[in-house]
Amino acid sequence: MSKILIIEDEEAIRRVLVSILSEENESYQVEVAEDGVVGLEKIKNNDYDLVLCDIKMPRMDGVELLEAAKKIDSELPIVMISGHGDMETAINTMRLGAFDYISKPPDLNRLLNTVRNALDKKKLVVENKILKKKVSKKHEIIGNSESINQVKVMIEKVAKTDARVLITGPNGTGKELVAHQLHNKSDRSNAPMVEVNCAAIPTELIESELFGHVKGAFTSAVKDRLGKFEVANKGTIFLDEIGDMSLSAQAKVLRALQEGVITRVGADNDIKIDVRVIAATNKNLKTEIAEGRFREDLYHRLAVILINVPSLNDRREDIPVLIEHFATQIAAEQGNAVKHFSNDAVNLLAAYDWTGNIRELRNVVERLIILGGNEISESDVKAFASK
């Protein structure tokens, strides 16, 4: 049900608008306010999907209400209505954030179309918020150990900036979760986050993958192709396993970071980009530099902020909560009831040497849920969680 507020000082017009909207859709819940002061109080205390607001009113006019309401809820669609319509007023209210502007007496079809469009926009905003919450939940960092809390604190400090971040740590520790958290909490969160696994792309294709190519640049280049940097424009690019990138590709990434431009393979013209770069590696890049496999100048460009993700063995106190989290997650994926792990089973798992880190723990939890009893016991762990 869509909740609509009409703010109008003329009672006759209020009645007409209520009648029109009620006849248009029985699911519209329409409320009224006789002036801007009353209307603003209602907006403070209710969640409306749409506001229709007169401009010329006593005590508080529509422009004042628009500015105040946008501070309360910047995404609330507000349609301005006035009998003193002029283009300057319309432009001013749109600049202040009004969804639309309608002159009195309102054209019936235009009014109803505007209401439908405004409600559709509000619905999309709500759906987008729900989707973002689901995505954020998917990339949640589980645990409250001192070492993982330090990572969370770093994320909060760094996310809102455009500083480049280099995430280090062993395989399976969740470096990609840190990257997603940095993007999701940033001002770029509405733009794309593009992930590139540098280790999974053949050396001869990495430059085309990152920077794109033009038709005919090489044998299989049958058409122009955008690279990951262009796709991520205004957003974030996550270069995972950057320690495996070829030296020639490193040189081009360095240029992109220094000059903010890229060149597609086979092209001559530069393309300006605005991309935040987050990189990750399980290698010691200083060792790679010493052995000539990684550019020192690129390292210093990437490592403005360093975040080290601890191994699971260094945060064993998080293992019980991780087991519970994975058990709940796996049960939801499989459509089954959540299986409980006994204290002895949890204690035994907490004592293991987790060389594969979080990824290995999740695999073991899934294996135990599939093969173990209704409650996962110490004997189940000994039988199925072989190390």
From TrEMBL:
Gene3D superfamilies: 1.10.8.60, 3.40.50.2300, P-loop containing nucleotide triphosphate hydrolases (3.40.50.300). It comes from the Bacteria. GO terms for molecular function: ATP binding. InterPro entries: AAA+_ATPase, AAA_lid_NorR, CheY-like_superfamily, P-loop_NTPase, Sig_transdc_resp-reg_receiver, Sigma_54_int, Sigma_54_int_dom_ATP-bd_2. Pfam families: AAA_lid_14 (PF25601), Response_reg (PF00072), Sigma54_activat (PF00158). PROSITE patterns: RESPONSE_REGULATORY, SIGMA54_INTERACT_2, SIGMA54_INTERACT_4. Residues 141-370 form the Sigma-54 factor interaction domain. The modification 4-aspartylphosphate is found at residue 54. GO terms for biological process: phosphorelay signal transduction system; regulation of DNA-templated transcription. Keywords: ATP-binding, Nucleotide-binding, Phosphoprotein, Transcription, Transcription regulation, Two-component regulatory system. Residues 3-119 form the Response regulatory domain. This is Response regulator. The lineage of its organism: Bacteria, Pseudomonadati, Bacteroidota, Flavobacteriia, Flavobacteriales.
